[in-house]
Structure formats: structure tokens, C-alpha cells
Design brief:
Layout (H helix, E strand, L loop, with lengths): L18 E12 L2 E12 L3 E6 L5 H8 L7 E6 L2 E3 L4 H6 L2 E4 L11 H6 L5 E2 L2 E2 L1 H14 L15 H14 L4 E5 L7 H16 L3 E5 L3 H7 L2 E6 L2 E7 L5 H9 L17 E11 L6 E11 L3 E5 L6 H9 L9 E4 L2 E2 L5 H6 L2 E4 L3 H5 L6 H5 L10 E2 L2 E2 L1 H14 L17 H14 L4 E5 L7 H16 L3 E6 L2 H7 L2 E6 L2 E6 L6 H8 L15
Parallel strand pairs: 3-10, 3-11, 6-9, 9-10, 15-22, 15-23, 18-21, 21-22
Antiparallel strand pairs: 1-2, 1-4, 4-5, 7-8, 11-12, 13-14, 13-16, 16-17, 19-20, 23-24
Length: about 525
């Protein structure tokens, strides 16, 4: 690529080119895989252009090339009709390109404000001037409904809040080309609606948006055009007004996809999980994050805890699985045994499987290989070790089996570093590991986060099969479609308390929304959620 004319606005042909960004014939190769195979993408000024494809189709790779994180083996990038070179994200920012990454690029020990201004810190004579920056961040936060506390440490805020921080970071830099990589993966339905509104407003202001998503409903609602990738290749670009959701899904996965979950009525058996009076302290404020929660989950049923992100679900799961301490008076009983004070390994080896909310922090060791991650909780079992030595042939055999069964796509198979895999395939690896282990209780937190419709269909089938095999399933999900489709019983959590219990057959999304927002609550007597 030529390095000439990399500064925005230099070229008079900018006004004549119909595209603000053109990526022509981009090819990007990683060991064992062609991530992008001769792909062309054209973004018009002021449009919302969706990029759709299965997990590992090459969407995030293509956007990382545009943002300067990767250098392509072949191809050219044009900004306003002028060929440009983007060697790194600083070049991208100079060209007015900003990106909200699927896996956030935040410094956890810094505050929200420090993360937003990082790299463009306002200063006078070398002295940091945060006051004006904070004022601008608060104004942006208010204008776009992205309510965050600029003084909070990133490590103390929810995943949803981290997502908002990333969006504010991009808006603070006044970028004109905005890349959203799976921006709604961790947002609540209300937050998603608000984000869709924000994106339309940004496009109306003249900003151009590239929107990576697996969620066909969102693409149908917000995008003007959509480019579809499959297995690293370009499938086509369509006007959203001219296609149906079913046609898009067929382009994406190459077959028809069922959007409804096939399942028979639950046949609840014995109580598999009983929680009594769980309270968990908050790291952010004086009130408890979880306050006196009691519930039961039976073998053979899927109980879902629904709620807006940040209402105690994360702390509840952390306490249940052993990542966080409970307050005195809490009792957790699994299959008749009190496991309140048992170790995480004890819970794992005695029947608890856990698909965590944050796959990077709690699900994977990113610098381990895929096969090492798959046996993280089982390497000490006799199947995988002998006389204290790991039987790597057996580990490889088991990893190959799960990779094929769960369609985990990776460039180098079982020896691929987890860090190098797409987010969706990282998620599938965790799900494969947790579902294949013998378990009495599956705790599934946002299990289909970042997965495409084909993978969601498969994972939902696996979770229902887990239920039908006699396990208890405790699902924590922000996706109301998933809540309504997959659950046998729904509990709504608001400000750390269970405020309602519902049958998905007789309730509505609107009714759930009122309880999730705190507008309504049931008068639950002792044990109502523990039937």
C-alpha cells in the first residue's frame, strides 16, 4: 500500500467517491487458516452497514485490519476515494476511525475516565487537566444515555458498563467512522433499544457505522445494508429492505435455521439446588449486591434469573460458584449436601458445571492451547493422567472429539492458542467443556453471548438435552428471547432481590420488563421462588 494522502480531507476526489471507506480484495492469513479471503467491503457516508457471519467467519479480523491491528497480506484500503495505509490504531484514529471491540480494550485498574482519555490526555504545560475531560464525558454520557460513573474503577463495574465505557471512548474522540463489534452482546433489551436509537442518531448526524452482529432482529431494525461472510469468504451485500431475516440467516450459515426452541414440558424431579437467605456484599456501595435471596431448582427443569445487568446477578453467580464470599446466614445445598463453604474444585468435581459471564476472566486461560483449556477441570482425573504425568495423547483425543461435536473452529485445531480464536469459538469451547462433564447442576450465564444463530440453535438444543437427561439448569440471561424460549420458570432479580416468579407460557416480555425495571414487584412469601 502507498503511504500517500493518509490525512483525512486532503483529496478533492473525496467529494466524488460514493464511499467513505472501501476495503478492496483484503486477504488476511493466520497459521492454518485464511481468515479473510479476497473480501471487498464498501461503506457509504451516513449509513449503518451490518457485517454478518458465523463465529470465525472473519468479521472481527476484517474490522481489525481496518483499525490497524492487523496488516493484510493482500488488498487496499481507501478513505474518501484515497488509498491509505493504516499501520496501527493511531493511524486509524487520525483518519477518524474508531472501534468498540468485542473483547474490551480497557485497563482494569484505571478509572472509567482515565480509560476514555487514555492516549489523548488533556494537559496544560505537561499537567493533566481532567476537569474539562470529565465534564465532556458526563455530557456525552447524558446525551447518549450511556450512564456511567467516570470515577469508578473498570475492574469494579459490570460488563455492560465496560461496554458503555468503550462506546464513550470512541465518541470522546469524535470519530466519524464507527466500528461496533458485537456491541449488544452484553446489553439488556432496554439498553439495546437505546443503543439502536443512538446508532440511528449518529448516522443521521453524518457518521458512518460498521456494525458487526449475529442478531438478525437488530440488523433488520437498524442497518441500511448488510455484507455477509461465510468461512472467510464474501457471500454478498444486500439492502436490508429487500430481504427477510430467514434469507439472511440462510446466507450466513448455508442452511435454514429454526428460531424457536423445540422442547417438551419440563418434568421436575428432586430438588437439586436450594439456596437459603443468600446475601453478598457489594464492592460499589454500602447496600448488599444480593439481599436475602432464596430459591430452588429441580432436576429436569430450566430456571432462569432475568434482570437488567447490574442488579446482583453477577455477584449471585460468583457466590454460588465460589468466586465470591457469601454473608453469614447463607446456605447453598446441592443434591442434599451443604456446599456453602466448599472450594471451587470441590463444587466442580461434585456435579456443578459453570459457563461464566466473562469468558476471558473466568472461562479460559488465554495463553493455554485449546486442548489444555478443555481439560482444565479434569487433567487430574485417571482418564488424563497416570502416576502424576499428564497423558497428552488422551487429552488430544478428547479435545478432537469435543472440537468436532461442538464445531469449535480454530486455525490449528487442539493446539491453537485460546487467545487467537474468535470470541464465539472461545465461547463454544467453554460450553463444550462444561456440558460434556458429568454434572447435576449447570449454571449457565449468558451462554449464547456472541454466538451466531446456527450456534445458538445448537447450544439451546444441548441445554434442553441436559435438562432432559435429569440435570438442573440455572440460566442467567439478559436476552429476553432466550429467557422466554428456554425457561421452564422465570425469576426476576431487581436490586439484588427476587421480585417476581413467572411461567413463560403465561407471561409477556412487557410484563417481565416492568419487574426488571422495578416498576412492579410481587409480594413473595417465604419459599415462593423455591417451589
Amino acid at each position: 500500500m502507498s503511504n500517500s494522502n493518509t490525512v483525512p480531507g486532503m483529496n478533492p476526489s473525496a467529494q466524488t467517491s460514493p464511499y467513505v471507506i472501501e476495503m478492496r480484495n483484503i486477504t488476511k492469513v493466520f497459521p492454518g487458516i485464511i481468515a479473510n479471503d479476497n473480501i471487498t467491503l464498501q461503506l457509504k457516508r451516513g449509513e449503518i452497514h451490518a457485517l454478518l457471519g458465523e463465529n470465525g467467519a472473519g468479521k472481527s479480523t476484517l474490522m481489525s485490519v481496518l483499525f490497524g491491528l492487523y496488516q493484510p497480506e493482500k488488498g487496499e484500503i481507501y478513505k474518501d476515494g484515497v488509498k491509505v495505509t493504516i499501520n496501527d490504531p493511531n493511524d486509524a484514529n487520525a483518519l477518524g476511525i474508531g472501534m468498540v471491540h468485542q473483547h474490551f480494550k480497557l485497563v482494569e485498574v484505571f478509572s472509567v475516565l482515565d480509560n476514555i482519555i487514555l492516549g489523548i490526555e488533556p494537559n496544560t504545560l505537561g499537567f493533566l487537566q481532567k476537569k474539562e475531560a470529565k465534564k465532556k464525558v458526563l455530557q456525552l454520557s447524558e446525551n447518549y444515555g450511556l450512564n456511567v460513573d467516570p470515577d469508578a474503577l473498570v475492574e469494579d463495574i459490570t460488563v455492560g458498563m465496560q461496554q458503555r465505557t468503550e462506546i464513550l471512548k470512541m465518541l470522546y474522540r469524535e470519530n466519524e467512522i464507527l466500528i461496533f463489534d458485537e456491541p449488544t452482546a452484553v446489553l439488556t433489551p432496554q439498553e439495546i433499544t437505546e443503543l439502536m436509537h443512538i446508532m440511528k442518531g449518529l448516522a443521521a448526524e453524518g457518521k458512518s457505522i460498521l456494525f458487526i452482529s449475529h442478531k438478525l432482529n437488530e440488523i433488520m431494525e437498524v442497518a441500511d445494508r448488510c455484507t455477509v461472510l461465510r468461512k472467510g469468504k464474501y457471500v454478498g451485500t444486500v439492502n436490508i429492505a429487500d430481504v427477510t431475516k430467514e434469507e439472511l440467516s440462510s446466507m450466513m450459515v448455508g442452511r435454514n435455521v429454526k428460531f424457536a426452541v423445540d422442547k417438551e414440558d419440563a418434568k421436575p424431579g428432586k430438588t437439586m439446588l436450594e439456596i437459603e437467605h443468600m446475601s453478598v456484599k457489594s464492592r460499589l456501595h454500602k447496600k448488599n449486591a444480593v439481599n436475602n435471596v432464596s430459591l430452588k431448582v429441580h432436576a429436569g427443569e430450566i430456571v432462569c434469573i432475568a434482570g437488567i445487568d447490574g442488579n446482583g446477578q453477577s455477584e449471585f453467580v460468583a457466590a454460588l460458584t465460589g468466586l465470591e464470599k457469601c454473608e453469614p446466614g447463607t446456605k447453598i445445598i446441592m443434591d442434599g449436601e451443604d456446599i456453602t463453604k466448599k472450594s471451587i474444585r470441590y463444587k466442580n468435581t461434585h456435579g456443578m458445571s459453570h459457563i461464566p459471564e466473562d469468558r476471558h476472566k473466568h472461562g479460559l486461560v488465554l495463553d493455554y492451547s485449546l486442548e489444555e483449556n478443555i481439560v482444565l477441570q479434569r487433567y487430574f482425573e485417571s482418564d488424563f493422567q497416570k502416576a502424576g504425568f499428564i497423558r497428552f495423547d488422551k487429552v488430544r483425543e478428547y479435545a478432537d472429539y469435543l472440537i468436532e461435536k461442538f464445531d469449535v473452529r480454530s486455525g490449528q485445531g487442539p493446539v491453537t492458542l485460546a487467545r487467537s480464536m474468535s470470541g464465539g469459538n472461545q465461547q463454544k469451547a467453554i460450553i463444550a467443556r462444561e456440558l460434556d462433564r458429568e454434572h447435576k447442576l449447570l449454571v449457565a450465564v449468558q451462554p449464547t453471548r456472541g454466538l451466531d444463530v446456527g450456534a445458538i440453535e445448537f447450544i439451546h438444543e444441548q441445554i434442553v438435552a441436559t435438562r432432559d437427561a435429569g440435570s438442573a439448569v440455572l440460566l442467567i440471561s439478559l436476552e429476553l428471547d432466550e429467557v422466554m424460549n428456554l425457561s421452564d420458570r422465570i425469576l426476576v432479580m431487581y436490586e439484588g432481590e427476587i421480585v417476581g416468579e413467572f411461567d413463560p407460557k403465561t407471561t409477556t416480555v412487557e410484563e417481565l420488563g416492568l419487574y426488571m425495571a422495578g416498576a412492579k414487584r410481587q409480594k413473595l412469601t417465604e419459599g415462593d421462588a423455591r417451589q
